[in-house]
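Appendix B, Record 12. Input sequence as logged:
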Amino acid sequence: MKMMIKLSSKKYLARIYLWFASLILLVTAILSSVVYYNVQEKVLESEYKNSQKLLAQTKYNMENLNSMVRNLILSTYNNNDVKSLMYLNDNETFDYMNMMNKLKSSVVWSNSFVHSVYIYNNNKHITYSTFGEFIHNDTEWERLLQLHGGSLPPLKPIIRDMNVSLDAQHVQKEKVLTYVMYELTDEQGRMDGAVIINIKLEWLFDNIKTINNFEAEQLSQMFILSDKRDFIEVSQESSEEGAKLEALLKEKYESSGETGNYFTVKLNGTKYLAAYIAVDNTGWVLFKTVPYDEAYVYLNKLRTSIIVITVIVLLVTLLVLLQVSRGIYKPVEQLVAQLRSSHSFGEQIGPSKDEFSFLQDVYRNSANQLGQFQLERTSNQQHRKNRFLSKWVLNSLSVSQDEFELFSKEYKLPFRQEQNFMICVLKFDDYKSLTEQKLEEKELFVFAVMNIALESLSKVCLAEAVDLRNDHVALILQADMPEDMLKESILLLIQECQIYLLQRYQMSITASLSVSVTDHTYLTTAYQQALYVSMYRFISGKMSLLTQDYITQLGQIPSMERVLELENQLLEQVRNANYRGATDKLADLLDEVKKLEYSDMMLSLLHTVNQFKYLVYDLNKSRQKPVKVNAILMSKELLEIETITEFQIKLMEVIYEVTSDTEAQSQQVSDETTKAFRIEQLISERYADMNLGAAELALIVGVSASKIGKLFKTYKHMSIPDYINRVRLEKAVEWMENSQLTIQEIIHKVGFENESYFYKVFKAKFGTTPREFIAKRAKERM
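Logged structural output:
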């Protein structure tokens, strides 16, 4: 028991000992492995060289045979008497028997490897032969010729079967190597006349066997893979194991892509080392296999020796390490003893199990105290910094020159007086849902937005973020560059932040950018201008990038008489229970309202809501079952709506309730329309997501994947992919007109994954390529 307590109190000593022991073991194992691996490579190289010598000799013999046969067939083909026999027609006579006897004596009997010679006459469709009858009918030759359309590759060895029995009742076949030589073909592509020499394949195999028997290793085997990727049997006794080995060699060779010179295969637990070499002008491949264990028999002995030596070295090392570890551990032991004797640490930490956990507790306690102190200091400093920045943004006239310089130095603000300032307002979309979360989660999201935006914008300008404890945060920006270039860079980086926040936190933000101001005292003016621009999120939608230029591009302000006229037409369609007509008039009304200034826009929409109230009250007087007033008719609900699309959806619910015959039908139509508008809104917000599609939208909206396309097409008269492409193309045009980005960068930003597909849909919509479109717009501006 005392021994266990003593060991547990010196765990750090044991760890030092084990770490050193493990290190020594690892080094020894690595060195042993390197030695074994190098020896193995040398043995492999030696075995490979032996195999390559044998293969090279065999290859030389085969290529020499191929050369002799090619010379022989060419000399025979160029013989005038042979050519006369090749092109002999029915009207001519020729002593072909004497000619064939001459070939038999000069070619067949003079060359032991030649089996027979054929002279093919295409005019008579006759084959003259030195084997058997002078006019020989070789059915296997005729079948081969017919299979290849009447012509075979010239001067290339072809392995085929040949009938060698002269008895028709007992047909015997023999493998031969056939060479064909011809120059001309007829109109059907058949050989016009040819010389065919058949080589005894058995002569070649006997030669290979003779070379192979020179080896001391009788377990080695040789194989030939033909140009048709079939194995030629070198030995007549082809066993089942040999056939399996051939299949493995073929599979491994083809999978290796014909690179390298050797590989290993495993068959029935036996590993083989296979070397190979290609034979020129034939398409053949020679293989030589040697059992792996036979080639590396003494490597196993070497491995055993290495293991024994490693174990002995390790045991000696462990004894030496024990003394070394004690020497290293001694300072730690003294430090632990000194800390344990300290009264203050004893009271704060208490008894520990071992010296290592005790030192951990001492460090943790000290770090906690230091961290708490640092946290309080940083929190107070950050609070004071944020209070100053809030004062500067909200009331910049109250910040004097001296105060600005003092606080800039104290809080290390990067701004300089001689450069212009800009304000970027980041407004949280769906702010109501954000306020419903816990305070800690809300603050975490705000902190994430501020830090991500600062990290991104710091690439092009000086930036500081201000948490204004509202539905938005403000970014103070300053850079020494032209305003147009700075604005373009900022909008580009803000869009990247929007996409990142949406993908990482499922959070949507709308950004608005002010014009630049020349002095720090005008910062409040820039902030108010950016805040005013952000109000136009109501028109542009969530995740927008807004500037004063956007408001300017909205067009001429319409007359209120036109707005009131459309409002009356809308109410009339609702009174007549004309659902389709009401939806069209509502769309026309909202198109006109979008052109108003923001304050007039909201007043106009409030007026429309009030008129709907009176209309519903009036209709309920003559109905047996009253229509329920939708929540949108309450001014409080209207003020919480962030986009005009949401307003349209809510108001459509009222129209459906008023124009529907039954409450159930009203609810169904209202739900479908709400979902259709929701899909449209989601596409407008998330068009930059390359993975956006019907399946993802179906999950968000709560509609099955099989029905969402039909639902959207009913109300939008186009498919979801077509609408996504339309939104992306419209955004692409905006980038082309308002930035200097390349087409590839724009394609990535608007959500197209395939560049060729973007070019295709762009030209289909605009009738021109993106480059031509940009050039045309640039020319129009000039």
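The longest strand covers residues 270-279.
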